[in-house]
Specification:
By secondary structure, this protein is mainly alpha-helical. Helix content is 83%, strand content 0%.
């Protein structure tokens, strides 16, 4: 199975997005690791799919749900990396 280059771009951007969001929410909610993980994941979904909706309604880009899925998968990995750094 070959994965389109566009999906890889969304995946890599998702890693960075998830890592930044997790670091941000961990900074804001220092004692609540679980809550920061949930917020980072929810925001990753909202941003990933929101970008696709923006593309659909403005015509500036190509709307595809699988792009958002690739971004969220990447974000999950980014969140996990930051969490591993936080708990070590």
């Amino acid at each position: 199975m070959k994965i389109a280059p566009d999906k890889w771009k969304h995946f890599y951007v998702g890693i960075v997005m998830g890592a930044v969001l997790q670091a941000f929410f961990a900074f804001l909610l220092d004692a609540h690791l679980g809550f920061s993980i949930v917020l980072a994941f929810i925001f990753s979904i909202a941003i990933g799919y929101g970008f696709e909706l923006f593309s659909k309604f403005t015509g500036k880009g190509h709307y595809e749900v699988m792009d958002a899925v690739a971004a969220v998968i990447g974000a999950t990995i980014g969140i996990g990396i930051v969490v591993l750094i936080q708990i070590s």
